[in-house]
Specification:
alpha+beta, four-stranded antiparallel β-sheet, 20% strand, elongated, binds zinc ion
């Protein structure tokens, strides 16, 4: 499953490839991907849209569309005044919201490239290229949402501040930890409290901050909160910077693997700690594997 750094990597790669392009047609081969929208309505809405930007909220990829619906008589529908050339909307009208979930991935293909297996959505661009969404496990989601309603979308509305934004600061983290009755490790995985850490990066951030994962979140001193805040940002920034390749990350690469050679505790049970030489431990906590150094991360 892609974690936030992998999704950020995909966003950057998509941005380089398709911003400014126009979608001339699309094909949806798996209707449940865009449910509850119907295939015909989805295709009609997206046709002729230009891509004005690509961003991300949590692990949702936001493809911003400058959407201008062509009416049968040739007028455009985005202004009321008949005959006048419509002003370009300042904000995108529609956003194509995509969640990769388990196995979703994008491929950017030329007209000659063969369509891979499990290609469920295909977007044809004005430069003869195609953006393909493939998804073996079929848990991915694609939704066309009016830009104005994006912030209220279920799944997005609840998310904690972005980890690279100024809203995610040491004071914010301190406040969130103080109010929790859970262990640090469990809390750090809750995307409505701290955004961006999956199982791998939570373990790595706690190791870097030298904090025990089982410690009750509310018992962390201000000094340690500040250290944890730094470590979370460091781990995520480092991961984004070290993911290589294009955005078809699924080819021969399991998510997180791009970062694997940098893992210091994750999946290193029994190996010597890189800092002190003690054996890395593993325990199942809240249904997930947790890795830590018993010496560097004492309770
Ligand atoms: Zn150690």
């Amino acid at each position: 499953m892609p974690e936030l750094p992998e999704v950020e990597h995909v966003v950057r790669a998509l941005r380089r490839a398709i911003v400014g392009r126009t979608i001339i047609a699309s094909e949806i081969k798996l209707p449940k991907l865009i449910s509850p929208s119907s295939v015909s309505s989805f295709k009609r809405k997206i046709k002729g849209s230009s891509i004005t930007g690509i961003s991300r909220r949590g692990k949702f990829i936001l493809i911003e569309l400058d959407h201008e619906v062509a009416l049968p008589n040739g007028r455009a529908s985005d202004t009321g005044s008949a005959g006048a050339r419509p002003a370009r909307p300042v904000k995108p009208w529609l956003v194509l919201v995509v969640h990769l979930r388990m196995t979703g991935a994008f491929l950017y293909l030329s007209a000659e490239d063969e369509l891979p297996k499990h290609s469920h959505a295909i977007f044809y661009f004005d430069n003869d290229r195609r953006l393909v969404f493939r998804d073996q496990r079929q848990f991915g989601i694609m939704k066309l949402v009016p830009a104005a309603k994006l912030a209220d979308l279920k799944g997005i509305a609840e998310l904690a501040p972005e980890p690279f934004s100024s809203d995610f600061n040491s004071d914010y983290l301190k406040d969130v930890l103080k109010r929790s009755r859970r262990s640090l490790k469990t809390l750090l995985l809750d995307q409505t409290r701290v955004l961006g850490l999956g199982n791998i990066y939570a373990a790595e951030a706690l190791f870097r901050a030298r904090i025990n994962p089982f410690k009750p979140a509310s018992e962390l001193s201000s000094r340690r909160v500040a250290r944890l805040h730094e470590a979370i940002k460091e781990v995520l920034e480092f991961a984004v910077a070290h993911i290589r390749g294009g955005f078809n990350l699924e080819v021969g690469v399991s998510y997180g693997e791009a970062f694997e050679r940098f893992w210091q505790v994750y999946e290193r049970e029994g190996e010597p700690c890189v800092k002190c030489g003690a054996r890395i431990k593993r325990a199942t906590h809240g249904g997930r594997s947790t890795y830590w150094c018993p010496k560097c991360q004492r309770r």
